[in-house]
Specification:
The chain is an alpha/beta fold and about 240 residues long. It contains ten helices and ten strands. α8 links the parallel β9 and β10.
């Protein structure tokens, strides 16, 4: 079993527990997700880095990102490995006017529906996390609920899966979630092959304005930045530096 398999297995087990509880009765209107700019992430911890900012205030952090010029907010809602929650998602979205992405290991219809019920404007789907038929079904459900889909790939063999799912955005993650290894050349290698599918999002390893400029030159329409912003002493300034870069 790969590291990603374990993450998905635990996420599904947690979701089954939540299925016993009623979903919020009404969700707010979907906010259109951007096709360019910076996606700033609310991230408490990660399996590879451990604690990043476990005591963060998601609303306060989201407001700092918005003031710094972020185009959207990503919120990690996985509890066991990232310390996140749907409460973080709701708090961040209520605090800003920006659209919000639910970032989790989503492989069931219930997870998609609860994302919208808790206010998500977009969800993350990961190519390696489920079979093509499941991913296509989840993408269709998200579309029916009005949400955008960021479809994440890590290697060339996942390109056709991404193409078949017709996502709104394609994310290229430099970190392979099966092994947690980082491949710094992943975006440069995959971008020319993926740019005809959807606008591209560069994920992982973005810390400086030079990183931002490099990924833009390589074809990224958006950058998704987690650790460098969630751990920043001044997240508003850190966001502004990347946006200006």
């Amino acid at each position: 079993m790969s590291h990603l398999d374990r993450l998905v297995e635990k996420a599904v087990a947690d979701a089954r527990e939540r299925e016993k509880l009623p979903l919020p009765s009404a969700a707010s209107t979907v906010r259109p997700f951007p096709r360019s700019g910076l996606i700033a992430e609310v991230k408490r911890a990660s399996p590879s880095k451990g604690d990043i900012n476990p005591g963060l205030d998601p609303a306060r952090l989201a407001r700092a990102y918005e003031r710094g010029g972020a185009a959207a907010i990503s919120v990690l809602t996985d509890r066991p490995h990232f310390g996140g929650s749907l409460d973080d998602l709701r708090a961040a979205r209520a605090a800003v006017s920006l659209p919000v992405l639910r970032k989790d290991f989503i492989v069931t219809d219930f997870q998609v529906r609860e994302a919208r019920a808790h206010g998500a404007d977009a969800i993350l789907l990961i190519a390696a996390a489920a079979p093509l038929a499941t991913l296509r079904s989840l993408r269709q459900l998200a579309r029916g609920l009005g949400m955008a889909v960021l479809f994440e790939i890590h290697e060339e063999s996942e390109l056709e899966t991404a193409r078949a799912c017709e996502p709104d955005l394609v994310g290229v993650n430099a970190r392979n979630l099966k092994t947690l290894e980082v491949h710094p050349d992943a975006f440069a290698r995959l971008a020319p092959l993926a740019r005809d599918i959807a606008p591209l999002v560069a994920e992982s390893g973005i810390r400086t304005a030079d990183d931002a400029r490099r990924y833009r030159r390589q074809g990224a329409s958006l950058l998704l930045v987690g650790q460098a912003l969630s751990a920043a002493a001044n997240p508003e300034d850190a966001t502004r530096i990347l946006v200006q870069g």
